[in-house]
Amino acid sequence: MLSAVRRCYNLKPQVPRVRYLCSTTVPAGSKVSAHSFEDFVHKRQEEATRSVIVQVSSERSFPELYNYCRDYGNIISAFHYCVRHDDVQHYILLEYENAQQASEAIDSAAYNEDLTGVPVRSPFLWFRATGRKTIQRDTVSGSKTQLAALDGIRIMDNDALMGTLREAVDIEKQIALLYENTKLNDLGIRLRFLAASQVQQAISGMFPLARALPFGSSVNGFGKNGCDLDLILRLDEECKGPDSKKRPESRLVFHTKENLTNGRSQTQRQMESIGDMLHLFLPGVCHVRRILQARVPIIKYHHEHLNLEIDLSMSNLSGFYMSELLFMFGEFDERVRPLIFCIRRWAQSCGLTNPSPGRWISNFSLTCLVIFFLQQTKQPILPSINTLIRSAAPEDVRITEDGINCTFARNFEAIGFSSKNSNKISDLILQFFEFYSQFDFQNKAISLNEGRAVSKPDHSALYIVNPLEQLLNVSKNVSLEECERLRIEVRNAAWVLESEVENYQQTGVDKSQEPWGLLNLFKTPDKNIIRPNMFFKPRILEVSELFDNTETPPATKSTSSNTATA
Ligand code: GTP
Ligand code: MG
Q: ipTM score here?
């Protein structure tokens, strides 16, 4: 394309202004409408292959960068974002019409002859200043492309968010605003898929079938702006499921290295090398830590051009399929995601969750609690996982290499579930707190597979049957003390929210009387206030029938030795 432009205008080849970012320090300078998870992931992966990230001195460089880079192809969108450390670094993501054009832009880039950095080809570039004065154009000539985002991954600070919620007309609107202002946005998703693409491209020479796939909150629809990226790296195509086109019965077969007999040691050794490769060669990657003795060995690293914490694993395919399941639950009903955001925010504000793992409940377990609640309402809002399993077709069969059966229907039409429950999200939140205020954590386990409470197979304080490995407990890490705190906090929350709803019904929202609604739910608890015990509130007792007909889960064994942390 560039050479064609040069021929046309008889231009001399330029000294490339877009340069590779090397792995040493460089100079300062709505949801995708996809119904199925596989479509969503595929679309985002493809989008990443059409994108490059260019470090610039500020957003004002955009017209010049655009005019320079459109020589390589048609730029269909552009986003600006900042990374703040000691100073502010500016970046622009350019999305080309096709991967070939992005590739041409990357191939045109130069290595900085002054830098001693490792010369690596990657989609991370920087835009150097020319010695001569350039004509600054306010508008991007010849195109309607404008920056679709300015400072596009900035996280709204808590005070600003609370101010926004205070201005809402009612609690329902507060919930919507919380969701809209805190969910991982389009640019955040693009950057995460670019991080995956960088790893995949880096090893593609030796492993052309390798796939680096984001999972967890980056893709399951429950991620916040700024959330970490969970990444699974597979050296073969297994992640694509049975559709992947295996080579026809070729008579030519690759010679390969023999696998170690112990699969775990093999993974650990491979991850060591991948960790070294990331650390030594990939631009932007820093603070690489190897946590290889964990149940799921991971490499943690920071990406300084994306402002992202990344956990890379190679053997957690069930985690990937679990993300698919969570994504589907979010797709079933539009109330699910805002509700989960609200509950996660509440749990964070009262200290039930904590960014580091420990004896407390994780966001993942909390999400399971919400999904379970929505499955067991009188008119269920979500189907049980067994319903999804029963509707599975042959193309839905997924068995991981360690034998975990991740087969469930992916096709919403085949599942054929629709809910008759028309409760507002604000009602559902209150019902959630009331439900868990009464839940028999001592004797019952939560089974998303059954969609109802079952007998607890061991003495864990909190027992959530792992949906994909039903002998395991997702929340085995939760201590008795933390489970007790959960019980107290759900009661407090029910009490607070009920008072808020009553006040609101009596007086309407008086914004001069701040804070109100969710703001009171998200307040750090005042330890001096003793709240009444919710068990004595008559209205709450109505939900007790929900615990009828509980059964032991079919696949559980009664000895705790069979139950490992999920
Ligand atoms: P945050 O990182 O807290 O934003 O949430 P997250 O959903 O990304 O949780 P986390 O990073 O802890 O886990 C990543 C993903 O791994 C989850 O979304 C699940 O899909 C999966 N996962 C986590 N824990 C388990 C587990 O015990 N069993 C299974 N099968 N999958 C899990
Ligand atoms: Mg995560």
A: 0.96
Out of 183, 192, 224, 230, mutate this one to test ligand 1's pocket (max ligand atoms within 8 Å of CB): namely 230
pTM of the predicted model, to two decimals?
Answer: 0.85
Is 521 touching ligand 1 by the criterion CB < 6 Å? no
Structure tokens at 101: 């054009």
Each residue of 32-69: pLDDT tens digit? 333 799 999 999 999 999 999 999 999 999 999 999 99
C-alpha–C-alpha distance, residues 218 and 363, integer Å: 13
- Neighbouring residues of 197: CB distance < 8 A, sequence distance ≥ 6: 45, 48, 49, 123, 212
Q: Write out pLDDT tens, residues 434-480.
A: 999 999 999 999 999 999 999 999 999 999 999 999 999 999 999 99
Average pLDDT, rounded, for the chain? 84
Question: Are residues 241 and 321 in contact, defined by beta-carbon separation less than 8 angstroms?
Answer: no
Closest alpha carbon to 522 in 369, 336, 347, 354: 347
Is 324 a pocket residue for ligand 1 (Cβ < 6 Å)? Answer: no
Query: Helix count (H) and strand count (E) of the chain?
Result: 17, 13
The residue among 332, 340, 331 whose CA lies nearest residue 363 is: 340
220, 364, 398, 474, best to mutate for ligand 1 pocket (most atoms within 8 Å of CB): 364
Distance from Cα 474 to the centre of ligand 2, integer Å: 15
Task: Report yes or no: 218 and 230 within 8 Å, Cβ to Cβ.
Answer: yes
- Give the ligand 1 atom nearest the CA of 404: 30
Q: Take atom 17 of ligand 1 and give the residue whose Cα is closest.
A: 216
Which ligand is located closest to the Cα atom of residue 357?
A: 1
For residue 279, the SS3 value is helix
Q: Which of ligand 1's atoms lies nearest the C-alpha of 355? A: 3
Diameter of the chain by CA atoms? 85
* Nearest atom within ligand 1 for CA of residue 224: 4
Q: Is residue 87 classed exposed, middle or buried when 0-12, 13-18 and 19+ CB atoms within 10 A define those classes?
A: exposed
- Which residue type, as a one-letter code, is found at position 201? Q
User: Which residues of the chain are modeled with pLDDT < 50?
Assistant: 1-14, 22-34, 138, 239, 241-244, 528-566
Residue 172 Cα to ligand 1 midpoint, Å, equals 28
CA distance 281 to 112: 16
Looking up tokens 């999904």, which residue turns up? 371
Give the residue, by CA position, lying nearest to ligand 1 atom 3. Answer: 363
Cis peptide preceding 297, ω within 30 of 0: no
Please give the distance, rounded to the nearest whole angstrom, from the Cα atom of residue 231 to the centre of ligand 1. 11
Helix (H, G, I), strand (E, B) or coil at 28: coil
CA of 314 from ligand 1 middle (Å) equals: 15
